Task: inverse folding
């Protein structure tokens, strides 16, 4: 049997949600990750330090007995965010990034940015204070093909933004294309990217396997096989610019299985196991630890986690559904097999 012991990992892009749903998502994440960068796209969004600190308390209150878990908070960038709030956020010691959603780009992104110029004063302050900008990198222009929105975002928005704020620390979140991987690789050291497990395990055929598959619908969309291979190469390359961020994004079964289903894939129940499967398939297991437990911490200026987790190549079945507050959640691989397990 294959076995791998790594330093305990960080999830550098996670949606925990709020209210009763927190119990499920916090428990699953904390079982695997002692820290996570927590996304602010609640309803209403987390737009200032006070709200982020309150949300942090709710997350900690939902934590089951046992695992330690440090929520690394973020603020949602709106056009009315006061630049002075950046220093307040930083001084709180709990806020590690500001999240840019192009308005309307994804779930709960309607309070995001319509024109970058409107947030230049905030970005200038962030550049000065070395506060990272976490970017959902897709254009919202309906004339752009849904599968091209990330690549076009690089040309239209990200490259010009970096030219204007050359010192701004940027995480290009959940990259899905060769264009994004190449852009990050060629950029300065303070431009990095997170990569999800689902984007290195699946290509876009998974959206249409035998019929339409709402539980494989996420944003940015799954892409062609060539892109999946490029992302897997980037993740397993040992390049510190690429690190783990699951983008685990739970929605109720009802919200996904609908004539207009929401974007988001839930992987928190098996996240590190799924990355191990992808790395094993690429014959790159020795590179998993740095990708999962070091490069993200290095970028965010955090000490490495203490302790270790052992993964074993043993089959395990994912339940067909999970409880989610009063609702039901369909996890990634529901009713199917995982090939790695965490040793209890
Ligand atoms: C995320 C969500 O549901 O909050 N959905 C997703 O498909 N990834 C938002 C996001 O990160 O785009
Ligand atoms: Zn996300």
Result:
């Amino acid at each position: 049997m294959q076995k791998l012991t790594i330093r305990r990992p960080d999830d550098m892009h996670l949606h925990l949600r709020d209210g009763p749903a927190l119990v499920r998502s916090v428990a699953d994440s904390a079982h695997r990750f002692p820290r996570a960068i927590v996304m602010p796209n609640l309803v209403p969004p987390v737009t200032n330090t006070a709200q982020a600190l309150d949300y942090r308390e709710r997350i900690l209150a939902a934590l089951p007995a046992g695992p330690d878990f440090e929520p690394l908070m973020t603020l949602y960038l709106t056009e009315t965010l006061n630049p002075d709030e950046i220093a307040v956020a930083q001084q709180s010691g709990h806020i590690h990034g500001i999240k840019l959603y192009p308005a309307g780009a994804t779930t709960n992104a309607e309070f995001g940015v319509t024109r970058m110029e409107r947030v230049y004063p905030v970005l200038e302050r962030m550049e000065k204070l070395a506060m990272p900008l976490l970017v959902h990198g897709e254009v919202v222009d309906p004339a752009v093909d849904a599968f091209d929105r990330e690549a076009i975002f690089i040309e239209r928005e990200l490259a010009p933004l970096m030219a204007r704020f050359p010192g701004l620390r940027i995480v290009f979140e959940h990259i899905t294309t060769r264009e994004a991987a190449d852009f990050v690789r060629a950029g300065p050291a303070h431009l990095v990217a997170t990569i999800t497990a689902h984007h290195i395990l699946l290509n876009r055929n998974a959206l249409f396997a035998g019929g339409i598959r709402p539980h494989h619908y996420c944003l940015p969309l799954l892409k062609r096989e060539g892109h999946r291979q490029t992302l897997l190469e980037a993740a397993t390359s040992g390049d510190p610019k690429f690190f783990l961020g699951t983008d685990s994004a739970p929605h109720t079964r009802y919200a996904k299985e609908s004539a207009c289903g929401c974007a988001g894939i839930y992987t928190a129940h098996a996240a590190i196991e799924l990355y191990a499967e992808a790395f094993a398939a690429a014959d790159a297991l020795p590179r998993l630890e740095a990708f999962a437990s070091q490069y993200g911490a290095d970028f965010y200026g955090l000490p490495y986690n203490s302790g270790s987790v052992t993964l074993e190549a043993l089959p395990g079945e994912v339940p067909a559904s999970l409880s989610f507050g009063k609702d039901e959640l369909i996890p990634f691989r529901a009713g199917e097999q995982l090939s790695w397990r965490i040793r209890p």
